[in-house]
From TrEMBL, chains A, B, C, D:
Listed Gene3D superfamilies: 1.20.1270.360
InterPro entries in the cross-refs: Csp_YhjQ, YHJQ-like
PANTHER family: CYTOPLASMIC PROTEIN, CYTOPLASMIC PROTEIN-RELATED
One Pfam entry name: Csp
Alphabetized CDD domains for the sequence: DUF326
Name under which the protein is recorded: Four-helix bundle copper-binding protein
């Protein structure tokens, strides 16, 4: 595992966690959370998985790639859901999720 | 800090985290998340603070009581919000939050 | 997934996280951390994975069983390492890890 | 709270968490963990507090500044301990901790 790919994936995970937390808070605060329930739910799982994968990579854990594999799955689901909504925070979250999914897939491979 | 009070507070925090996660998921899944947005938002913070306080107590960290003080605050806010709603998961969460707030206040004192 | 098995696995994960945090702190504080480095390292990963699996189970996440599968792996590794040491905190941690591994294996099945 | 200072503090927290995880793993893996026990212990708390503060800031939580205040304290303690050791990972961790402490102090003010 090259150090360069490792750092890139940690950064992608941290960026995605921030985007997901922000998207969930915005979805909750704009007066139509019922319509955004699936998005909020996925944001919540995705933010956590991204943070956890980044944590294990940063410490060089033997279990980092196993977490990256799960993280890639939830990132792909979250990207697909967010992409369906027009709000800027959803579109930005979809981009961050797709980049993180790709970085995690490379780590898990 | 007596071992007994320590264990009791960890247990109260873990129980409260479970109740908050369950309450947030139920609030998101019952078709009226817009009306429950404040509850979901507090559940999210409260679940995290409870887990983090429990983590620092379990490891005997010097920062455990500082986290317990913040945890008590969010537990009280979450209890007040959940108590306003009739759903069983909200009422049960309010009880768990109040018990955790009391246990954390004792630790932080 | 029956509610009973679900609650039991959350409890096993929380108990194991507490045992691992305590074991790591004790290993660090008893003056022979160099000999216990592998134990401390596994305790650290195991505590985190247990907390994360419990979190996803409590919220009814679609990714809970994937985390339980990873959690079972690290619990088995941590149990094997802890069982090699005579200290009470290591022996207790080994028991908690084995119980958690079994509960997580059932969830992941 | 300006958006700019907010983003800067999240970044400082994430950078510090990475530095602390790496420092702890290196301290555990270099054959003299007993001498580094205080450093490992502080790295563990500091990494967690940094991640937690970043999480609450990213979601715009009402409790973010309270966590930043605790995070600043542990960052200062971790910086002081790491600065005492010559290893590159300790020196780099001390720098990351000092920067994070300053950013968190500004947020908590």
């Amino acid at each position: 595992m090259s150090h360069e790919r490792f750092d890139e994936c940690i950064q992608a995970c941290n960026d995605c966690a921030i985007a997901c937390e922000h998207c969930a808070s915005a979805c909750l605060g704009e007066g139509h959370a019922t319509a955004m329930a699936a998005c909020i739910r996925l944001d919540r799982d995705c933010a956590d998985l991204c943070r956890w994968a980044a944590t294990l990579m940063a410490r060089g854990s033997s279990y980092a790639t196993a977490l990256c594999a799960v993280c890639a799955e939830v990132c792909e689901a979250c990207a697909a859901e967010c992409a369906r909504h027009d709000a800027a925070h959803c579109q930005q979250c979809a981009v961050a999720c797709r980049q993180c999914a790709e970085a995690c897939r490379r780590m898990a491979a």
